[in-house]
Amino acid sequence: LIINFNKGTEQILKEASDNSYAMSELGERYLYANMDEEAFKLFEEADKGGCIKAKHNKLLLLGKKYYYGNETNKDYKKAFDLFSQIQKTNVHAKYYLAKMYLFGYGVGENEKLSENLIDEAVKMKGTEATEFIFKYNTNMVKLMQEFNLDKNIAKEILKRLDSLNSENIKNIKI
Q1: What's CA 171's distance to the chain center, in Å?
Q2: Which of 12, 40, 82, 83 is the most buried (most CB within 10 A)?
Q3: How far is Cα 27 from Cα 38, in angstroms, rounded to an integer?
């Protein structure tokens, strides 16, 4: 089945309804358009049809929801478990796990393991991971040099700023 994504959404949905892979691909397009609720529904349906990629995307969205505490309580342990299930094949899950190890969210701090995960994510062509490590290192150096801060204090400031970050993970019912 070939789906022409230039067609209207209703036509695409009609064509994708019997094809879990096509449904997952459509879900990714919704995801990139920040339409997480719609993407999640499509991933759920595609997962029922046996599409592994859809299952991984669904777990990623749930993990991000717990990580940020959007429409639920923050639960780093649940987020960690969800990301861990898919980190071998999902660059975004690797990125979130790296942040969790770096800042000790739901796990013990482990900078070495965080660095390894970031390296793996970058090798998987993870722009999110590349941007994070660049920003983290740049901000760490700025805090240490401009404010004459100890590395641990600078890291704690970056950790608190990260915890204030909120993504557009909304309206997904758990």
Answers
A1: 16
A2: 83
A3: 7
